[in-house]
């Protein structure tokens, strides 16, 4: 059940990001100076952490989505769903650590 809840939350998070991304891209047509101001605001540590959260949401949603597809379309999927959940969890955590290192390096270089 928790995988289902997290899948929904990560999907809603990705949708919210895409909505904000379309809005901030639309600012470019209205005013290039305002767009540059928005981009400058995105270079804050808080937004860096939000980007890391976005990577986490996309990563979990993608990995769990593959698991859901396998459960639905593979005849042995329901039998191995718990094992696949553990594989998703371990893969996600490894990916999250690697993404954290890369994001941390970029944030460190940016705020030096």
TrEMBL record:
<keyword id="KW-0349">Heme</keyword>
<dbReference type="InterPro" id="IPR000701">
    <property type="entry name" value="SuccDH_FuR_B_TM-su"/>
</dbReference>
<keyword id="KW-0408">Iron</keyword>
<dbReference type="InterPro" id="IPR014314">
    <property type="entry name" value="Succ_DH_cytb556"/>
</dbReference>
<protein>
    <submittedName>
        <fullName>Succinate dehydrogenase</fullName>
    </submittedName>
</protein>
<keyword id="KW-0472">Membrane</keyword>
<feature type="binding site" description="axial binding residue">
    <location>
        <position position="61"/>
    </location>
    <ligand>
        <name>heme</name>
    </ligand>
</feature>
<dbReference type="Pfam" id="PF01127">
    <property type="entry name" value="Sdh_cyt"/>
</dbReference>
<feature type="transmembrane region" description="Helical">
    <location>
        <begin position="85"/>
        <end position="108"/>
    </location>
</feature>
<keyword id="KW-1133">Transmembrane helix</keyword>
<keyword id="KW-0812">Transmembrane</keyword>
<dbReference type="InterPro" id="IPR039023">
    <property type="entry name" value="SdhC_prok"/>
</dbReference>
<dbReference type="InterPro" id="IPR034804">
    <property type="entry name" value="SQR/QFR_C/D"/>
</dbReference>
<comment type="similarity">
    <text>Belongs to the cytochrome b560 family.</text>
</comment>
<keyword id="KW-0479">Metal-binding</keyword>
<dbReference type="GO" id="GO:0009055">
    <property type="term" value="F:electron transfer activity"/>
</dbReference>
<dbReference type="GO" id="GO:0016020">
    <property type="term" value="C:membrane"/>
</dbReference>
<dbReference type="GO" id="GO:0006099">
    <property type="term" value="P:tricarboxylic acid cycle"/>
</dbReference>
<dbReference type="GO" id="GO:0046872">
    <property type="term" value="F:metal ion binding"/>
</dbReference>
<feature type="transmembrane region" description="Helical">
    <location>
        <begin position="49"/>
        <end position="73"/>
    </location>
</feature>
């Amino acid at each position: 059940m928790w995988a289902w809840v997290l899948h929904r939350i990560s999907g809603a998070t990705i949708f919210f990001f895409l909505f904000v991304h379309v809005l901030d891209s639309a600012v470019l047509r209205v005013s290039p100076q305002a767009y540059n101001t928005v981009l400058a605001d995105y270079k804050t540590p808080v937004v860096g952490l939000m980007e890391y959260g976005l990577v986490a949401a996309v990563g979990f949603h993608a990995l769990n989505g593959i698991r859901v597809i396998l459960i639905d379309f593979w005849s042995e999927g329901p039998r191995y769903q718990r094992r696949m959940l553990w594989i998703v969890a371990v893969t996600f955590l490894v990916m999250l650590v690697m993404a954290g290192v890369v994001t941390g390096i970029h944030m460190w270089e940016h705020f030096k």
